[in-house]
Amino acid sequence: MPGFIHALFPPDPPLSPMTFSRLPVVHRFWLGGIAGALFGFALGFLLWAWQQGELPATPLYPQVKLWHARTQILLFLGSFLLGFALQSGPHVVGGPPPPSRALLRLLPLLWLGFGVSLIPHDGLTGVGNLLISGACLIAAWLLLRITLQGDPLRRLPRGIPLALSLLPLAIAPWLPLEQAETALWVLWCGPVTTALVAAQQLIHNVLGGRLLHGRVAHLFAAALLSAWLLSTLAAFADASYWPWAALAWLAVLTTLILGSHFVQAVWRFGWASISLTLLLGLATALVCALGLTQPGLPLDAVLHLLGAGTMTSLILGVVARVARFFSGASVLSDRLLSLLLLLWNLVVLSRIATALGWPLPEPGLRISIASGALLLTLWSFRVALRLWQIE
Fold first, then answer.
1. What is d(CA 85, CA 318) in angstroms, rounded to the nearest whole number?
2. What is the mean pLDDT of residues 325-342?
C-alpha cells in the first residue's frame, strides 16, 4: 500500500533551506493566518449548514455571520497578505527592505486588535479596530516608501498597487463586512489587487513569463485605477455601477494575462501545482468579473467565489510553495497539492450552487462540508509544521 501511494503521489526532490539575507518574518504572520483559516472557515461551514436547513434556526446567525466575515478578511487574508507584502514586497518592487524586527512589531497590532475587536463593547471594539488599521497603514507606508526607492519600472504595475491594496484592509474593520457589497469592495480593491501583484512576480520569475512594462504597464495601472473607482461607487453610492466595475476588472485581468504571456508561460512550464494555482485563481477571478456584469446575479455567489475560489486557491498553492522553499521540506507532494486544489474548488462550486438557489442532492451538503473541513485541516497542519521549522 505505501508503494502504491508513493506511485500516485511521488515525493518532491529534497531542498536545502534558504540562506536568508535578513531575519524572515513571513512564517510568523502566516501562522496567524492558519489560525484565522481554521476559525473562519469553521464559522463559514456552520453558516452554510444553517442556510440550507441542516441545523435549526438560531438568533445567533447574524452575529456568527459578522464574526465569519471579519475573521476571513482581517485575520485569515490579513495575516497572509501582510506576511507576503512585508517579506516579499521589497523584492517584488525592487527596493531596499526595512529591518525585520521593526516589521514584527506589526504582529501584535494585527492579532491583538482582532481579538479585542470581537469583544461586544463599543469602546473596546473601537480600540481593536484602531490597532488593525494601524498595522495595515504602517505596512502600506513602508511599502510605498520602498517603492519610491526601488525600481522605477515596477512602480506602476507592482509597487503602487501593492501599497495601496493594504488601504482597504485598514478601512475594513470599520465597515459592515457582513454586507456582501461592502465585503466585495474590500476583496477586489484589497486582497485581489495584492494577489495580482503576486501573480505578476510568480508568472515572471517562476513560470518564465514577461514583466509588465511600457505601454502595457500603463494600461494595467489605468484599468486598475478605473476598477478601484467604479467598485467604490458601486459599493457605497449606487449598485448599478457594479457591471461597469466588472468591465474594468475584466480589463485589468486581461491586461495581466496577455501582457505577461501567462498562457504561453504555463504551456512551456507544464503541469505543476503552481501553474494550476495561478490558472484557478485567475480563471475564477474572470468568472467573478463576468458574473458581476449580469444584472440580478446574487452578490453572495460572486463574493464567495472570489473569496473561497480566487483568494483561498491562491493562498493554498502559493503558501505551500513558499513554505517549502523557506523550510527546505515539502508541505505536500506537488501532485497531492494539485489534487487538493482541485477538490477544494469542487467544494467552492457546491457553495456557489447553493448561493444561486440550486440545492445539493442528499447527502451532498454534508459531504461538501466534511470534505472542505478535511482538506483545510490537512493543509493547515502540514503548512504549520513547515513554518514552525523556519528559524
1. 13
2. 93
Cβ-count burial 165-202 (b if 16+ within 10 Å, e if not): bbbbbbbbbebebbbbbbbbbbbbbbbbbbbbbbbbbb
pLDDT digits (tens, 9 = 90+) for 8-51: 455 555 555 555 556 788 889 999 999 999 999 999 999 999 99
- On the question of pLDDT at 4 being above 60, the answer is no
Q: How far is CA 185 from the centre of its chain?
A: 14
Which pTM does this prediction carry?
A: 0.93
Find all residues with CB under 8 Å of 210, minimum gap 6, and list them. Answer: 204, 259, 260, 261, 265
User: Cα–Cα distance between 137 and 113 in angstroms, integer?
Assistant: 14
- Half-sphere exposure for 313 (CA within 13 Å, toward CB): 32
34-37 contact pairs (CB < 8 A, 24+): 34/380, 34/383, 34/384, 34/387, 35/75, 36/71, 36/72, 36/74, 36/75, 36/76, 36/77, 36/78, 36/79, 37/76, 37/376, 37/380
Answer with the residue of higher pLDDT: 266 or 389.
266
Query: Which residue, among 207, 169, 172, 186, has the nearest Cα to 318 in the 3D structure?
Result: 207
Q: Where are the alpha helices (DSSP H) in the chain?
A: 2-8, 26-51, 61-70, 78-93, 100-104, 106-117, 122-149, 160-164, 167-171, 180-187, 193-205, 214-236, 242-259, 262-269, 273-292, 299-304, 312-327, 334-355, 364-388
Average the pLDDT over each of 170-174, 291-295, 366-370 and give the range with the smallest value. Answer: 291-295
Q: Using CA atoms, how far apart are residues 365 and 278, in angstroms rounded to an integer? A: 27
Q: Are 367 and 48 in contact (CB under 8 A)?
A: no
Chain length of the chain: 391
Dig out the grid coordinates for 348 from the structure. Answer: 467552492
